[in-house]
Amino acid sequence: MFTPHRAALLLLILTAVLYAPSLGYGWVYEDQNDLETTFSTTRPAGNRWITAATVRASFAVSGADPWAYHAGNVLVHLVNGGVLWAMLPATWPAVFALGLFWLHPLQVESVAYISNRADLVMTTFLLLALLAAQRRQWWAVVPMALGAMLAKESGVMVLPLIALWAVWRGVSWPTWTRWGVAVGLACGVALVSRWGWTIDLGWTARELTKLLWFGTRAVGPMGLSVDQDWAWISPAIAVGGLVIGVCLLIWSVTHPHSAFDFVVLFVVLSVLPRLVVPLYEGLHAHHLYASMVGASVGIGYMTPKVCT
Amino acid sequence: MLAGWAIGTASLLPSWRSDDALWDRAVRVSPTARALLNFGIATRKAGDLESAVSLFVRADAAAARSPHPSDIRHRVRAQLIWIETFGIPDVCSRLTVRPSCY
Q: ipTM of this model?
């Protein structure tokens, strides 16, 4: 009989086959530059200790040959989908959600681009933290959140994301975990402060407009997005994007129990540091890898009755 | 929808094979000045200076036509100065808008 579990296994095989050609690909765009600086095997790794450790593991396997780095990215992507499947109910909507996470073209930039290892590993810890919260293993949530922060700075949002998930699922959590959230957020603010804490409303409006554009493209196969020319976002368009984005957020906060509103809040929270802190690099498709967890979880928890 | 996403992923993935493939697709999907500039840089790094110059000249022309301000024309000039210094002489004169890149 064709059960959801067997369908998930089929998706696993399909995803592995789809991404297998990437093992023969070379270094692309900022790969070598990033390996020399952020992921250097000889220099300090900055905040990204865990990511650097995984890159060093790839280096130990293939040295300067990129195949092990690509294999590492594909492996982490498959593991992330596996953890996602472990936290979803074994239903057909969950199979669809898993397919969204594993197969959507928006994920290509994250998986095929070696430099994006940080987002992949950070999302592993996000998923493990969500899984721990779902199983009421609260003692594991804070270490997982800390692991996410040590994979990538934007991992500071893992604790607020878990809080959002708990509220959405109606999960009661022990009082002491609130202190964990407070300590985690304090660590996060300290981390983000190292980037330079300056609020620029124009930047936020522009990045929010880009996020809306990605959202409209996410419903179908999308084109290349790396280093895209965003010159079409004039100040007037950015203000329009800001207004639409804020209206969408207000509407979502006032309807916190529907899957759509959970997805909207999850996506915005997961990229919030990038929306509010002006960095040298704006929003790209690979920054939305963790956001896809929210979309998949939102769909995965739908009951079959809702979908039919 | 799953089949559509899988096909989309399979068609998008080869563009990450190399810098050349990445920017070739970027220029085909969205022939903006920035995409042309990045394709030119990738081509220069691959050692094909003539093709790189052609892409930089196209990037400069696209940036000149664009109503949106950007730093692309300055970056094009920097690339052409590099090529003129280390490779092909007098490339700056190929720009559509004078004065020259100096």
A: 0.84
